[in-house]
Amino acid sequence: MGGVLRWFSRFPRALPLAIFLLITGLTLLGVYAIERAESDARRADIEQLAVEVSSALERRANSNAAYLRSGAALFASQESVPAPLFQTFIGQLRLDANFRGAEGIGWAARVNTTDIPAFQQAMRESGVEDFRIHPMPRSDQAYAVPVTNLQPLTERNRRAIGFNMYSEPVRGEAMREAEETARPTASGKVVLVQEGGENAAGFLVYMPVFRARPGQNGGRDLKGYVYSPFNAQDFVDSALQGMENRTVQMRVYDEEVAPERLMAERAVGEPGGEVVRQQVNIANRHWIVVLHSLRPSALSQISLITLIAGFTCSTLALAIAWLLTRQAVEAREIISLLEEQAAIRNSLTRELNHRVKNTLANVLSIVSLTRRRATDIDSFADSLDGRIRALSATHDLLTQSEWGTTPVRSVIEVEMAPYAQARDALVEMDGPHVELAPNDALSLGLAVHELATNAAKYGALSTADGKVEVNWDLVSEELVRVRWRESGGPPVPEKRPRGFGTELIEKIVAHELRNPVELMFETSGVRCTMLIPVRKPSEFMIRAKRMQQRIDGKG
C-alpha cells in the first residue's frame, strides 16, 4: 500500500486520468453495444423486408403467369387467333389491380419465312393497316414471331405491332426456353419497343401455344406465344405498393449483380453498412434483390444520451479525483517538507553550536595574539576591532545562506569591499563559482582581511599605483586554490618583524583549512597561496529546496 501511495505521489495525475479513461472506456463500450444492437435490428428489419419484397414480386409474376396460362389453354384449342377472339379473351379476363405494372397481354404468332407475305396481307385485310413484319428473319432463321395483337391497344403499344421478337437474341432465347419447358418464361433485360428510344429496362414473359399434329400421337407444333411486356421499374413499383415508407435502398438485378444487369431501383438515401441479398424467381428466371439499410445521420438517440451522460460523469469524476488526489499529495508533501525542515533545523542548530564554539575559540586566539603584539590599549582595540568586524562580515554571509555553502567570490568581495569601492581599478578578482563550508569561509575571510589590512598600511593599497589581484581555481573536485598577489606598491624590506597577521594566517587559518598556507614577502609585493576544501551540498538540503520550489510553484 505504501508503494502505491508513493507512486501516486510521484505521478499525481495518474489516478484521476485512470478514472476518467475507465469511465470513458465503459461509456464508449456501452455506445458500441447500443450501436451494434441497432445495426443488428436494422439487419433483421431488412432481412424481413427482403422476404416481403421477394414474395410480392413472385406473387405479381405468378398472377401474370396465370393469365398467360389461361390464354394459352384457350388459343391451343382454336385453329387460329383472330383479333376478335383475342379481344374477347382479354375482356373476359377482367384484369384487376394485380395486373398493374404490365404493358398488357399480347399475341405473337409463329410465321414461317415463306408465309410472311401472305401473313402480312391477311393482317392488313383484317383491319391492321400498313402491317409489316420487322425486322425480317435472318437467313439462318426458319420463322418469325411478330407481335400480332397487344391489348390494351394504346398509342404506346401500337409501336410494337409487327415487331419480330424472335430476331432479337434475348427475346429469342426466352422463347426457345419457354418452348422447351412449356411454361411461362421471363426474358433477360431488354428495352421494350414501346419505349420509343428511351433506355428504360424491361422484360417479357412468354407462354408458348401449341397445336397437335394430325395423324401423329403426341406430336405438336408451335403455334405462337401469349406474352406480357413489362417496364421493370413499373413492375417493381406496382408489386411493392404499401412499402414506399420503408427506409431502405433497393436494387433489382437480372441473374447477377452488375451495373449492366440493373432492372429497377429505389434510392431513398445514402446506403449504410447492412446489406441483404435475396433471390427471386420471376417466371422461370432468377432475379436478385439487394437491400441496403440507410446510413444513420448520426448516433442513435439512446447512444447520444449514453455518450453525453458518460462524458459528464467521467468529467465530474476526473475533477473530484483530481482535487482529492492533489490535496492528498500536497498534504503528504507538506508533511515530508516539515519533517525535512525539522531535520534541517536540528542540523543547523548542532552546526551553529559547533560554529559558535569555533568562533569563540578563534576570538580568544585573536585576542591573545593581539594582546601580545599590542604596545598600547589603542592599538590593541583597533586591531581587535578590525578582526572582529572581519569575522562579523563573514558571519553575515553565512547567515544569508542559512549556514549552508558560501561562494568564494562573496567572501572575498565582502572583505575587499572598503578598498574596491574606493579604488575600483586597484583590486581585481577572478575565478569560477566555488562553494565553501561555513568554517572554511570564516577562515578565508580572516586571511583576506589580514592581507587587505597589511596591503592598506604597508603594501599595494597604500599607494595610488598599487594593485591587488585575487584569483582562484579548482585544483581538484575537493580542493580550490586561492592566490593573493600585490604589485606596484612600496618595496617590501628584506628584514621585517613578524606581525600578528602573519601568525594568524600561518597558524590559525592554516590549522582551520587543514592545509598549509604559503605566505611570501617578495620585494615586488606580498604573495599568498591557500588551499581550501570544497564543500558539496548535503542531500537533505537539496531535497528541501526542491520541495520548497514545488510548493512555491503551486502557490
- The count of helical stretches stands at 13
Q: What multimeric state do the chains show?
A: single chain
> In terms of per-residue confidence, which ranges show pLDDT below 50 for 5 or more consecutive residues?
538-544
Number of strands: 18
How confident is the prediction overall: mean pLDDT? 80
Strand order of the largest sheet: 4-1-7-6-5
SS strand fraction? 15-25%
| Domain count | 2
What does the overall shape look like? rod-shaped
Distance between the termini: 29 Å
Subcellular location: Membrane
Catalytic activity: ATP + protein L-histidine = ADP + protein N-phospho-L-histidine
GO biological process, one term: signal transduction
Keywords: ATP-binding, Kinase, Membrane, Nucleotide-binding, Phosphoprotein, Transferase, Transmembrane, Transmembrane helix
Compact overview of the structure:
The chain has 555 residues and is an alpha+beta fold. The chain is built from 13 helices and 18 strands. Helix 2 (14-76) runs antiparallel to helix 8 and helix 8 packs antiparallel against helix 12.
